[in-house]
């Protein structure tokens, strides 16, 4: 995710998201109240109601600024519980049509989300789910660069090359593959800025998940956040380790939504 910072280098608000940039993340769950309690305790989020087009929905806030959304799944819908990134678009209808023409599927929309904007939910040719957001009043995540905000989004899939072409065609990304015999990774850039990644993991892809997008949330201290997460009923999938982006751990919330905690250097 691109960052907005003031002249003093501190976290700042976003003015506009360029097309293709991850601009929002949303989670659909069965237990709205319990999920809000979990993330409030983990990230310090507060909540207020959002558009109700797809059922009960709240927006998570940090210091009064919107950072993410949580919605209620209908009781009869047994979909995977997962964080979904929304990619910015100037024209949700055109982006959805392009996705269809390139082998993707549009499952919801495009439809109006009140005065907030226009949205669609689709999947790429491998089945990984993503959202499309055409902003009106609601531009997306209002602040970044502080604990509790989305900091990166990464597609975990079988191999990067084929699906990268899909995203490049639909959203206009520039690609930068990592040249390595044993590491399959492509960085997606918008206007010269890295905004997302595609990680090909082959047979290491979890069988119960399939290809999926993974959201990284910034934390001040990964190890401390892991302790808090397990006390709150979350689970550790991959313990904390130091990497190129910082100290990262892969976890799930109590309903099974997978995400990463990232303490940047």
UniProtKB/TrEMBL annotation:
Any GO molecular function: dioxygenase activity
Location of the VOC domain: 149-264
UniProt cross-references to InterPro entries, sorted A to Z: Anthracycline_SecMetBiosynth, Glyas_Bleomycin-R_OHBP_Dase, Glyoxalase_6, VOC_core
Entry keyword set: Dioxygenase, Oxidoreductase
Highest taxon of source: Bacteria
UniProt-recorded name of the protein: Glyoxalase/bleomycin resistance/extradiol dioxygenase family protein
Record Pfam families: Glyoxalase_6 (PF18029)
PROSITE patterns referenced in this protein's UniProt entry, alphabetically: VOC
PANTHER family: CONSERVED PROTEIN (PTHR33993:SF10), GLYOXALASE-RELATED (PTHR33993)
């Amino acid at each position: 995710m691109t960052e907005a910072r003031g002249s003093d280098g501190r976290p700042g608000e976003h003015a506009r998201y360029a097309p293709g940039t991850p601009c929002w993340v949303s989670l659909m769950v069965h237990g709205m109240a319990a999920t809000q309690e979990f993330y409030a305790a983990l990230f310090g989020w507060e909540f207020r109601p959002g558009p109700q087009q797809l059922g009960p929905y709240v927006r998570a806030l940090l210091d009064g600024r919107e950072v993410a959304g949580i919605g209620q799944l209908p009781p009869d819908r047994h979909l995977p519980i997962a964080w979904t990134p929304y990619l910015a678009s100037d024209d949700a209808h055109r982006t959805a049509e392009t996705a269809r023409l390139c082998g993707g599927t549009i499952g919801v929309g495009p439809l109006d989300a009140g005065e907030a904007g226009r949205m669609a939910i689709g999947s790429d040719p491998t089945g990984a789910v993503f959202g499309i957001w055409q902003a009106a009043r609601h531009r997306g995540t209002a602040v970044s660069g502080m604990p509790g905000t989305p900091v990166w989004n990464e597609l975990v899939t079988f191999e990067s090359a084929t699906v990268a072409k899909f995203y490049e065609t639909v959203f206009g990304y520039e690609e930068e593959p990592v040249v390595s015999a044993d590491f399959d990774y492509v960085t997606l850039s918008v206007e010269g800025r890295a905004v997302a990644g595609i990680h090909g993991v082959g047979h290491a892809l979890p069988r119960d998940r399939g290809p999926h997008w993974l959201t990284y949330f910034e934390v001040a201290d990964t190890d401390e956040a892991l302790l808090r997460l397990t006390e709150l009923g979350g689970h550790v999938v991959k313990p904390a380790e130091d990497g190129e982006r910082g100290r990262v751990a892969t976890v799930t919330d109590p309903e099974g939504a997978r995400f990463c905690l990232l303490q940047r250097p």
